[in-house]
Structure formats: structure tokens, C-alpha cells
Amino acid sequence: MDVYEVLRERLDACPPGAPQSETMYKILRLLFSPEEAEISCRLKFTLQSVSELAARTGWEESRLEKVLEGLADRGVIRGVTRENKPTRYSLLPIVPGFMEFTLMRRDRVADYDELARLWHRWTQEAYSVPTPLFRIVPVQEAVPVSTGFLPYQQVYEAINQADYISVTTCACRASARNCDHPLDNCINLGHIAKYLVDRGLARQIERDEALQILQQAEETGLVHSFNNYEQTLSICNCCSCCCSNLQSVKDLARPNTVANSSYEVSFDHTQCIGCLLCTENRCPMGAISPYQDIVAVELQRCIGCGLCTTVCPSEALTMRPREYAPDVPKDGKELMKILLEQTGRTERFHKINNE
């Protein structure tokens, strides 16, 4: 079997998977040399050292280390170095993982523009998961204090408490190039942030700059989303013109059925003054449109971002808690377990890790 097909099958064991397609085949050939693909076919989704891999394969450690370090520096695999321990390596999921990582540094890919086009095509063709990898957070000004728990506070508190913060290039905008929104506004926290900086894939920033990035995102109509488990490690600022997650939801008849947000919009037509500010490229789902002298709101299209409320001068648009708020997995391991079960990949995933 072709080494790239073997690698694709291996990557397909981890959600969201790597379904067989000409696009994925081209991506793998662009990112991996035949030797790199051969070595990557022996990696697991759990970390292992060069010596462990050499013992399993019979390959020279010096050869393995050189190839693995090159792959990790390009964001194609994970290479983690902890204090007083040798670097260990593993495969990455496609998303979130090496799709984003490989688009963070233009100078580390032989044909960056072609790779960006291929990744964008792949997200349109094959990217799908039953449980969202990210959840939507209403912008800071959208939710009244009287509602109690404020989801945006979780984001701001996570930034204030983080011991390390970095910013990276938005993979979706880098690949789609459908708008003029800022490219460098994906925020990472904690060990992920430090890992990306150590690998030269991100830039370390201070809290003030991170908060400025969030504020600018809100002002320009970007949707806050972060990883779909309790600990906040990644904060994306998404646009529906480029973001694969938002685009896939926007194509649905009822986006609110899959939107992972705890809030939804509430519209009081008696307070609406018909200014139409909320219809001017504000709602990423197109849930608000002019109607007679005011506007009409399609609640089934609301994903709970709150962007419409921040431009409403009469407070006709406000946010309220959803009647049935989605459950949030405790951590990344729990989310992975759910996705493995939902996609029928549990046995394949553990078989690879137990080799």
C-alpha cells in the first residue's frame, strides 16, 4: 500500500478523521516526504521518545531525531520537551491540530499558498464532527449582569490567570482569504501557548495585548469561540466568510440546534426603532433581516454570539439564557472519548496507541 495512504488511514483513527480523498492525499504529499511519511506511520497519538521508537522500528536514533524535529518544527506532528526528560513525539489530530499548525508559518512550507487552498478545500469537502470542537461565547457587552454566570468572564478570567499567552495566525482566514479581518488573532493559553512559541509557531504576548485582540474582534464583528471543554486553552475570533466551523453551521436550516452556546437573542419588537444597524454585516448566520419598518429575527438561526445586541441603540435586542444549555465536557480527554464513540473510532484509536 502507498505510504501516504497508510499514513492517511492512521490519521483517520483520530476524530475528526482523514477521510479518503484526492485533496487529503495532496496535502499529505505536500507536507511529508516519503521518508517522513514512513516514519510518521510508526507514531502513535500518545507520546513516545526517539529511543522507544528506535527500539520498535530498528531505525537509527540520529535519523529519527532529525526527521521528527523537522516535522515538529513545521507543525506536522507534536514534539514535547519536559524538564530533564528527552523530547517525545506523537501524531496530531487533523483539527484542531496540524491543519492550524502548518498554516501558522508561511516560511516553513514549500508551497504555502497551495497548502492553504488545499486545506480550505478539505474543510468544505470532508470536515465534520457530531460534537462541536468549539463553543460560542457572547461578546462582553451582550449579556446583562443580572443573568448570573457570564460566559465571556470565563474567557477574560482565563486570560488574566494564564501563566503564558501567545497569538497565532488564523488558519481559516489564511486558507480561505475571503475577507480583510486580522490574520493574527487566535489566542492560546498555558502549556499550548508555550509549546507553540517554543516551536516558533506563535508569538508570546502579554495580557493587555490579548485583551486588546478580543476587544478589536468584538468591534469588527468577529465571533468568540473556544475549545469545547471546561478549561480554556484556545480562543478563536471567527468570521463566517472564512471559518470552517461557522460556515458548516451557517449552511444548516436551523443553526441554533447545533450551536454550542448557553445564550440566544431575545427581540422586543416594541422597542425596535428600525435603524437596521443589526442587519449590516453583524449577524454571522444571517438571522436578522429588514421587515416592514423594523426587523425580523429568525431565532432558529441564532448561535448566541451577541454581536447584534452591541449595536442596538434601543435595547430591542438582548441576550437570554437558552432553555436547554449544552453540556460541556470536563477536559480534552472527555471530549475525545465522546468523539471516538460517536464516530466509531474507539477501537482503531486505541489499537494504534497500544502498538
Can you offer a commentary on this structure?
- The structure is a single chain.
- The protein contains 14 helices and 13 strands.
- It has 355 residues and is of the alpha+beta class.
- It has a six-stranded antiparallel sheet with strand order 4-8-9-6-5-7. A three-stranded antiparallel sheet has the order 1-3-2.
- Helix 2 packs antiparallel against helix 7.
Task: List strands and helices in order, with pairings.
Elements: H1 3-11, H2 22-31, H3 34-40, E1 48-49, H4 50-57, H5 61-73, E2 78-80, E3 88-90, H6 94-102, H7 112-125, E4 134-137, H8 151-161, E5 165-169, H9 171-176, E6 184-189, H10 190-198, E7 203-204, H11 207-219, E8 223-227, E9 234-238, H12 244-250, E10 263-267, E11 288-291, E12 294-297, E13 317-321, H13 332-343, H14 346-353
Antiparallel strand pairs: 1-3, 2-3, 4-8, 5-6, 5-7, 6-9, 8-9, 10-13, 11-12
Brief description of this entry?
By secondary structure, the chain is of the alpha+beta class. The chain has 14 helices and 13 strands.
Count every helix, treating DSSP H or I runs of 4 or more residues as helices.
14
Residue fraction in strands: 5-15%
Helix and strand composition category? alpha+beta
What form results from the Cα inertia axes? elongated
What is the CA-atom radius of gyration, in angstroms? Answer: 21 Å
**Parts with pLDDT < 50 across at least 5 consecutive residues:** 141-150
Average predicted confidence as pLDDT: 84
Kindly report the spatial arrangement of strands forming the biggest sheet.
4-8-9-6-5-7
Fraction in helix: 25-40%
H/E element string? Answer: HHHEHHEEHHEHEHEHEHEEHEEEEHH
Oligomeric state of the chains present here:
single chain
Largest sheet: 6 strands, antiparallel
